[in-house]
Amino acid sequence: MLIQVVKSKIHRVKVTGAELNYIGSITIDEDLMDAANIIRGEKVQIVNNNNGERLETYAIPGPRNSGEITLNGAAARKVAKGDILILITYGTMDIEEAKTFQPNLVFPNEANNLLQ
């Protein structure tokens, strides 16, 4: 049997932008993506701590060391600049692998979204 488990998490980042007229996705500082082991195009679940919204989209890299967290396209309607988000990705694996799997958990500086 295969199950889904947390693969990566970026905990408590601040929205820096919302671009409605864009093709979709979430732009994430590439340093944060690397630290969390998130790749370009990977599905990301977004949890908005400010309004309770949950949505899924895909990741695209933003400039390194920028702290950028921008929701693009329709997802931009689900956030406001300054909202605090948790970004989560999941992996599918068998139960035995899942028992020992260690996710990449990232806790950036909430003030500027940079790695500490």
Task: Explain what you see.
By secondary structure, this protein is mostly beta strands. It has a single domain, classed as Barwin-like endoglucanases (Beta Barrel). Helices cover 11% and strands 47% of the residues. The protein has an 8-stranded mixed β-sheet. A hairpin with a 5-residue loop joins β4 and β5. It is globular and about 40 Å long. The mean pLDDT is 97. Heterooctamer of four alpha and four beta subunits. Belongs to the PanD family. It is found in: Cytoplasm.
Q: Could you write a compact summary of the structure shown?
A:
The protein has 116 residues and is mainly β.
Q: Which band does the percent of strand residues land in? A: over 45%
Major sheet description: 8 strands, mixed
Number of DSSP E strands:
8
Q: How confident overall, as mean pLDDT? A: 97
The ordered string of helix (H) and strand (E) elements is EEEHEEEEHE
* Structural classification: mainly beta
Low-confidence stretches: none
Instruction: Assign the CATH topology.
Output: Barwin-like endoglucanases
Strand order of the largest sheet: 2-6-3-5-4-7-1-8
Give the helix level as a range of percent: 10-25%
| Cα distance spanning the termini | 38 Å
CATH class designation:
Mainly Beta
Cofactor: pyruvate
Pathway: Cofactor biosynthesis; (R)-pantothenate biosynthesis; beta-alanine from L-aspartate: step 1/1
InterPro entries: Asp_de-COase-like_dom_sf (IPR009010), Asp_decarbox (IPR003190)
Main location: cytoplasm
